[in-house]
Amino acid sequence: MQQILTIAGSDSGGGAGIQADIKAISANGGYAMSVVTAVTAQNTRGVAAALDLPTSLVHAQLEAVFSDFNVAAAKTGMLSSSAIVACVADYLADAAPVLVVDPVMVSTSGHALLADEAVETLKGCLIPLACVVTPNVHEARLLSGVDVRRGADAREAARRIMDLGCGAVIVKGGHLDDDARAVDVLYDGSDFHEFGVDRIPTTRTHGTGCTYSAALATFLGQGSELVAAVAAAKEYITGAIANAADIGGGHGPTHHFWRFSQ
Asked: What is the CATH number of domain 3-256?
């Protein structure tokens, strides 16, 4: 069983962040470990409060995991501040795992999860370490400067994000203005690959980015090639959305263990 690490904030509602990552990693056959960067008070309706952990404690968690476990892959989610981004990047630069960076900036409900000044630290320190970066449309705009609305915009944004030094970029298409299909665009530096599915009319989308990137890290850690891993992660998150239960009064969570309830 491959050991997969998530480095992210916690979600008291269980649908996103560390909690979603652990579920997604476990559902796809990995052993999940975690480094908590921040604690949030949130549910399906929104984020009420958040508290960053001291970088000394973030570093101690990283040291505890890497000193005892064989980390096959890691993913980052909510990192909150420039100091936490730098702390994580400094450690991972030496640890050198397969790394998926989900550049979490804003929650589904619109709450800022990354300080404005931390964006440059993310771009300069962490993204260059990533095997793959997984921005949504909003995040791709902030990272690339491209007003991402359609597939052609997503491709240009991916090119510009690649220039930051990462191995590949996936611009997720859930919020594109395109037709009835949600198309993710993968750019590996030479070729584009598209992964499209019919849109699912639902509000149960809380934590989709976290869940998707955690699944992707798991498949990469298990040895899948990039295109195959992206395809498998896309299939998994689509099923998790399609089979989501009616939980909470806002943007409900996906069903991370949907394959086991078929």
From this structure: 3.40.1190.20
Cβ-contact 133, 162 below 8 angstroms: no
Spatial separation of the C-alpha atoms in residues 196 and 238, rounded to whole Å: 10
pLDDT per residue as tens digits for the range 67-106:
999 999 999 999 999 999 999 999 999 998 899 999 988 7
The token pair at 141 is: 């705009």
As annotated, the active-site residues are 172, 205, 207-210
Per-residue pLDDT tens for 188-222? 999 999 998 888 888 898 999 999 999 999 999 99
Which segments of the chain does DSSP mark as H helices, in order? 17-27, 55-66, 82-95, 118-121, 137-144, 151-162, 208-221, 226-242
* The model's pTM: 0.95
Which tokens go with 107? 């929650």
Q: Parallel, antiparallel, or unpaired for β 181-187 and 192-198?
A: antiparallel
Sequence-distant contacts of 106-110: CB under 8 A, at least 24 apart: 106/138, 106/139, 107/16, 107/42, 107/46, 107/47, 108/16, 108/205, 108/206, 108/207, 108/208, 108/251, 109/42, 109/45, 109/46, 109/47, 109/250, 109/251, 110/46
User: For residue 171, is it left (φ>0), alpha (ψ between -120 and 50) or beta?
Assistant: beta
Instruction: Look at residue 141 and give its three-state secondary structure.
Output: helix
Which neighbouring-strand residues pair with 184?
195
